[in-house]
Specification:
single chain; 94 residues; alpha+beta; Thrombin, subunit H; two-stranded antiparallel ribbon; Peptidase_S1_PA_chymotrypsin
Length: 94
Amino acid sequence: MTSANKSVLTTPQWNASEDIDFDVAAAVVAPLQGRALTDAVGGQGVAFNQARRQRMYAFGYPAAAPYDGARLIYCSGRAFDDFLMSKDQARPAT
């Protein structure tokens, strides 16, 4: 299924300097032949401010070594409290 982007969004920090702490983006995709992209191929929800220690999944096209940005990579695991003096959550490497 080929579909056209209506718009692509990212953070100002990523757009200005590719700051890895703000590496997130989204695309708004126009329907094709009356069907939404997620109706045709499925989708993954996004959630913010969730309870800690839940199972989570991350998807992306990493470009930093050893990756080259050409392949979809995903990982999953139970989030845990970041031990590096922040209030963030982290995900164990899998």
